[in-house]
Design brief:
heterodimer; A: six-stranded mixed β-sheet; five-stranded mixed β-sheet; about 20% helix; B: three-stranded antiparallel β-sheet; 3 strands
Chain lengths: ~400, ~170
């Protein structure tokens, strides 16, 4: 594994056998196939790991890896950790050989331990390397101050910052409900969130090869125009968008947009949705972008990607017949370091809130409400409320 | 039964086995049991059952407040269903049958496989059915890089992870 200069691995922990038990040899081998590494500048310590449930199966000329396990870290830095991304490498130059596991919405102060669970399928060519087959490294860590540590080889920091801004937005929303209406208002807001999470239709998305896959599939490909959701305070305005679709697949949409802010936008992310003929709206995820476009004030950019995707309904696995498509600006990173995410009210008014996945933080808060009730949730919201001016960061 | 009087009821015998029968009823039952081996066997069976039940652990007092809260939460999450018109049911069943036949022809008629081997889906995340039960609500989405991400909630720890698959 390549580690940038100046960040040599401080700890290369080939997961060891638990000494109190006498596990089978095959389990011991599975443990030793995975190495956990923490670069020098990352204030985390890998306390333990368990990958004994993983499977390594040779098929043809490749090794299929079902990586299943967890790593327990201890935070040794001064400022609380908010998110961690782990780079998982089986083979850097093979499709399916490289992945990232992000754990957003963490709240880990100095000295506390936390666990990250991994469950993913990977591939690497045979023969096996002499050492561990999979290397897991702490790639990026985001702190409460929005400062970061780690090499960020996967380029996930912008996403981590955007997810953290979403978390702060959603905590502020539920805290305001508690402060204005007490227990009853907080419970109602959480019930509404749980209903949305339960009712929201979901997709199972698969790669359908490089496009235009739809045209190759049959002659029924058609180009549809995207409905673009505009947000008053967004730094980018979406001007026009189209996508080529068939009954079962879609190419990545092409969307023309313009920077209308007075400052340069370094990176951005577009949310992508499709609708069926019954009016149900599904979140596809992010509209693929090629490269990392920076946009000066007034500049235009058209997204493009060769990707093609097959969309199936989650649950019954039936192919989704695409009737409509829409997009919205999900986040924007300004050159001056500010991060823009949509306001909660804008998501409600545009009804996006009913279609897009709730933020990781809202999911976590909902679980606290489900299992421990509104009082425990109110305690958690108060605990994580922004510090008053003059107080030290948590 | 002449000579030994009426047989005591099962309830009387079970109360007698537990020592909960009143003094008068206990005397009457004892007189009957002296001459009735059939009721003696029933009483012995009750005593045996009672002995087997005794070692069971005490039942914990349920947290009714927490139960009521969970019930409210679960009830609120049940989506409101609109009743199907009865006339649609046969049509829906017929349509589903036709769709299944068409899907089977599509998948198997061309020699395809609905679940190709992993080597043919490089980079594909594990299907939701293969995720452990500890993960709930796994969802596959497209990433800005054109890859796929799987969002999974780990119920035991209350943490959410997002796994992204990258192209080389």
């Amino acid at each position: 594994m390549r580690i940038p200069a100046g960040s040599t691995p401080r700890l290369a922990l080939a997961a060891l056998l638990a000494c109190h038990a006498a596990p089978a040899q095959s389990e011991a081998n599975r443990q030793l196939e995975v190495a956990v590494e923490v670069p020098e500048d990352v204030p985390l310590r890998a306390v333990s790991s368990d990958f004994s449930a993983s499977e390594f199966e040779p098929r043809g000329g490749a090794l299929v890896i079902e990586l299943a396990g967890s790593i327990r870290f201890r935070h040794e830095g001064p400022v609380a950790v908010r998110a961690v991304t782990l780079a998982v490498d089986a083979h850097e130059r093979m499709l399916g050989g490289r992945a990232g596991v992000a754990a957003p919405s963490l709240h880990v102060p100095r000295g506390e331990e936390f666990e990250i669970h991994l469950h993913l399928r990977m591939l690497r060519p045979l023969p096996r390397p002499p050492g561990p087959v999979v290397r897991v490294a702490a790639d990026a860590v985001l702190f409460d101050t929005l400062a970061s540590a780690g090499p960020d080889r996967l380029g996930s920091l912008p996403k981590m910052k955007a997810r953290e801004m979403e978390a702060r937005r959603d905590r502020a929303y539920f805290l305001a409900r508690w402060q204005s209406g007490g227990r009853k208002a907080l419970a109602e807001a959480m019930q509404a969130s749980l209903r949305r999470q339960s009712a929201r239709p979901r997709l199972d998305v698969r790669l359908a090869g490089d496009g235009p896959a739809t045209a190759a599939a049959n002659g029924t490909a058609r180009r549809i125009q995207l409905a673009l959701v505009q947000q008053a305070d967004a730094p980018l305005v979406l001007e026009h968008g189209t996508a080529l679709v068939t009954a079962t697949a879609t190419d990545a949409p092409r969307i023309l947009l313009q920077n209308r802010a007075g400052a340069a936008v370094r990176e951005f992310e577009l949310g992508w949705l499709v609708g069926d003929r019954y009016g149900r709206v599904y979140s596809v995820g992010a509209a693929p972008l090629e490269g990392s476009p920076g946009l000066g004030p007034g500049e235009r950019f058209e997204t493009r990607s060769d990707g093609s995707f097959e969309l199936r309904r989650s649950g019954d696995g039936a192919p989704l017949k695409i009737d409509s498509m829409s997009a919205y600006l999900r986040s924007a990173h300004m050159a001056d370091g500010r991060v823009w995410v949509p306001a909660r009210e804008a998501l409600e008014q545009s009804r996006l809130l009913e279609a897009i996945p709730v933020s990781a933080e809202e999911r976590r808060l909902a679980e606290i409400y489900r299992s421990r009730g509104p009082d425990a949730l109110a305690d958690e919201l108060s605990r994580l409320a922004p510090p008053r001016p003059g107080t030290a960061p948590r | 039964m002449r000579g030994i009087g009426r047989h005591p009821s099962e309830r009387t015998l079970s109360l007698l086995a537990g020592g909960d029968l009143g003094a008068g009823a206990r005397w009457l039952a004892a007189r009957h049991l002296e001459r009735c081996p059939q009721c003696g066997e029933s009483l012995a069976a009750f005593v045996r059952d009672r002995a087997e039940l005794r070692p069971g652990p005490p039942v914990a007092e349920p947290d009714f407040g927490a139960l009521a809260h969970r019930a409210r939460v679960e009830a609120e999450q049940v989506p409101r269903r609109t009743p199907l018109r009865s006339g649609w049911l046969p049509k829906g069943a017929a349509a589903a049958g036709l769709a299944a036949v068409a899907l089977a022809i599509f998948l198997f008629g061309r020699g395809g496989n609905p679940d190709p081997p992993a080597t043919a889906r490089t980079g594909a995340p594990p299907p939701a059915s293969r995720l452990p039960l500890a993960y709930r609500g796994a969802e596959t989405q497209v990433t800005a890089g054109g890859g796929l991400s799987v969002r999974a909630f780990h119920a035991a720890s209350g943490t959410l992870t997002v796994t992204e698959y990258y192209a080389p």
